[in-house]
Amino acid sequence: MLTENTVRMHGQARGTLPITVSSITGRKRIAVLRPRGSLDASTYRDLITEAKKLCDAGVRYILLDLCETPYIGVSGLVALHNIGLMLQGDRAPDPEYGWQAIRALERGIGGGANNRLKILRAQPQVAQLLQRPCFARFLDVYTDLNAAVASC
């Protein structure tokens, strides 16, 4: 049975992205991040920062629960790319480097079978964006927590 623990809330300060962090107990180190709000140029760094803390602590799978994220901009997509690279042990491009990060995003971060970043419960507008071929090749999208955990 899946249980969640270690719930933390980050981003309480004005102008930051609130993120709930949960860990799922089991044989693998899995974290669930649930941002509350749009993932765009003003918030994407918050998500990268939180994911980096988790990777540094030994988490190797992140389920990004987007049930409270109504919009993802280009900067948000760059954040997803960076997190995927970090989870694979690769060095992520500097998100401030602009178009090079976006070009890297277009090349993808590997196949879904090797992907350690899973998208969970994306809202319809976000799910539609993530179904585009350039994103679908490196992002696995799930509607059910148990299915996402089983894929890790």
Can you describe this structure?
Helix 1 (about 45-55) packs parallel to helix 2 and helix 2 (about 75-85) packs across helix 3. The protein is about 35% helix and about 20% strand. The longest helix is centred in the middle third of the chain and has 14 residues, at about 75-85. The protein has one domain (about 5-150): STAS domain (Transcription Regulator spoIIAA, 2-Layer Sandwich), CATH 3.30.750. With about 150 residues, the protein is an alpha/beta fold. The chain contains six helices and six strands.
Characteristics:
152 residues; Transcription Regulator spoIIAA; single chain; 6 helices; alpha/beta
Strand content: 15-25%
CATH-scheme architecture: 2-Layer Sandwich
Task: Could you tell me the CATH topology label.
Answer: Transcription Regulator spoIIAA
- Name the helix and strand elements from N-terminus to C-terminus, one letter apiece: EEEHEHHEHHEH
Instruction: List how many beta strands DSSP finds.
Output: 6
CATH superfamily: STAS domain
Estimate the helix proportion, in percent.
25-40%
The mean pLDDT is 82
Low-confidence stretches: none
Report, as a whole number of angstroms, the end-to-end distance.
15 Å
Strand order of the largest sheet: 1-2-3-4-5-6
Shape field: globular
Please tell me how large the radius of gyration is.
14 Å
